[in-house]
Amino acid sequence: MSTAWTPQGAQHRSAQREGTPVPPALAVDGLAKRYGETTVFADVTLRVAPGEFVAIVGESGVGKSTLLNCMAGLDHWDAGRVLLAGQDLSALDDDARARLRRQALGFVFQAFHVLPHLDVGQNVALPLMLLGRHDTDAAVHAMLEAVGLQGLAARLPQQLSGGQLQRVAIARALVHRPGLLLADEPTGNLDPGTAARVMDLLIAQVRAHGAALVLVTHSEAAAARADRVLHLTAQGIADAPR
Ligand SMILES: Nc1ncnc2c1ncn2[C@@H]1O[C@H](COP(=O)(O)OP(=O)(O)O)[C@@H](O)[C@H]1O
Ligand SMILES: [Mg+2]
Predict the structure, then answer these.
(1) Tens digit of pLDDT for each residue in 24-70?
(2) β-bridge pairing 228-233 and 53-57
(3) Is residue 107 part of a domain?
(4) In this structure, what DSSP letter does residue 42 have?
């Protein structure tokens, strides 16, 4: 890869040596979310260190997607706060929040959300374009190679399989080297064999980039590879028995 970068973990350790405090990649404090009288979750507190891989498990409907959307500042909450790379999302206006999200975050969804009218290369280049960078070719090429899609830059999404679409989404989520990747059941729409290969790729790429990962998953195999597994319930979030 031509662009110079420092793994977040290494950055973290060297900053610690120099005595500069490094904020968590993500901090969530006492977060609560309600729809009218219905509480989705009441008191969610967690920290994700730079480079850390945290899996979140929980029953369907318990609020995992809602929580991830709050972490990204894409949904509203009723109490508590979310700090992304040390910045309190509540203190930012919509524009500043969007800028921070573009710079500091990658997101991978169960349903891929690859833009249908852009080709593969354009989809992967999008986060860089949104950051005002126009020299995207080398970074896009390197990302496509890293996810095994070299040579497919000119394909349209409709010409790809589900596994290939999710590889495009992974490349797009990491091309701008965010400190944190949020992934919401990223292999939930794939057959078991493809799911296992895409999960391997996702985790390997996150590690290679030194990014922190918050992964919502029903896959026990994937959760077993996390540094920590947290169980979300209506009462809050806690370490899951392993
Ligand atoms: N707009 C909405 N109005 C009311 N309830 C909602 C709305 N969106 C989601 N919910 C409810 O919030 C809960 C959490 O949903 P979700 O975050 O998708 O759960 P999970 O991802 O864990 O399956 C569900 O019970 C769902 O029905
Ligand atoms: Mg969900």
Answers:
(1) 999 999 999 999 999 999 999 999 999 999 999 999 999 999 999 99
(2) parallel
(3) yes
(4) E
